[in-house]
Amino acid sequence: MNLPTQLVSEAHPDRPRTSGAEPAPVSWHWRHELQQFVRFVRHPWRGRPEAAQPATVHARRLLLMLALCYGFILCIALPFNAGLSWLGLDSDEEPLSFLFFVVAVGVAPVIEELIFRAGLRQAAYTLFIGPSLIASIFGSWPLMLVLGGFGTCCAIIDRLWQNRLSAGELRLLKLRRARRFLRRYPLIFWIYSIGFGLAHIHHFFGDGWLVLALPLAVGAQTFAGVALGYLRLRYGLAQSMLLHALYNLTACVLALMVARIWA
């Protein structure tokens, strides 16, 4: 479906309104980056990728975002999941084999970032292509085929309809669609971030009313999805892939250390 998002008037903001143009910082500082992240969490915006920066700046930013993810785990997710575990919620433990390490660090970051965040800038992807790919992550192939077929039908019908419009009507249609997309973008971003967290729900299982608590058990993964989305939209897809790989790498190393200690 042809839903371009570039034809947006300058009057429509693609980021939260401010009193004036905010000058870019001369040098990177973790406090400034943290403020930008908090602003983004309050109101996600598509924005534009930042200009090229030195590798040292990217490395410091990745370490900051990794620290935020693990800070969330230690302060919120770990105590909360410990309480759920005390109530009877169980979690599976993946065997720390070499194959698991390769998949977690080298394969999963690429595939999951391509599915959940590569198309976050395009309306057609977020509305039609992404949902069918996410359905495949959950193992629901019939749902994937239904969503894929629905998106294909919409694209064909929309193309036939656009061919009947004049050039002026087509430009106006694209502009209206782009504005609607930007206006609803925070909701779209949160749906994809929560969907990323729910994609890891298979690691937890419980009986009775604890089933309702399963979405809350993946809070750490959901927060990681927000951090990854922030990096993807502001600094590019490669940055979110690097943070994803670094996140999984440190998780594997920590799990291995704990297994050795308790062995």
Could you give a short description of this structure?
The protein has 263 residues and is mainly alpha-helical. It has helices spanning 30-42, 55-87, 98-116, 123-137, 141-162, 167-183, 185-198, 214-217, 219-235, 237-262; strands at 90-91, 204-205.
From the N-terminal CA to the C-terminal CA, the straight-line distance is: 55 Å
The amount of helix comes to 55-70%
Q: Please tell me what the overall shape is.
A: globular
What Rg, in angstroms, do the CA atoms define? 21 Å
What class would the helix/strand composition place it in? Answer: mainly alpha
Describe the structure.
With 263 residues, the protein is mostly helical. 68% of the residues lie in helices and 2% in strands. The protein has ten helices and two strands. It has helices at 30-42, 55-87, 98-116, 123-137, 141-162, 167-183, 185-198, 214-217, 219-235, 237-262; strands spanning 90-91, 204-205. Helix 2 (55-87) packs across helix 10, helix 3 runs antiparallel to helix 10 (237-262) and helix 9 runs antiparallel to helix 10 (237-262). The longest helix is centred in the first third of the chain and has 33 residues, at 55-87. The model is unreliable at 1-13 and 18-26 (pLDDT under 50).
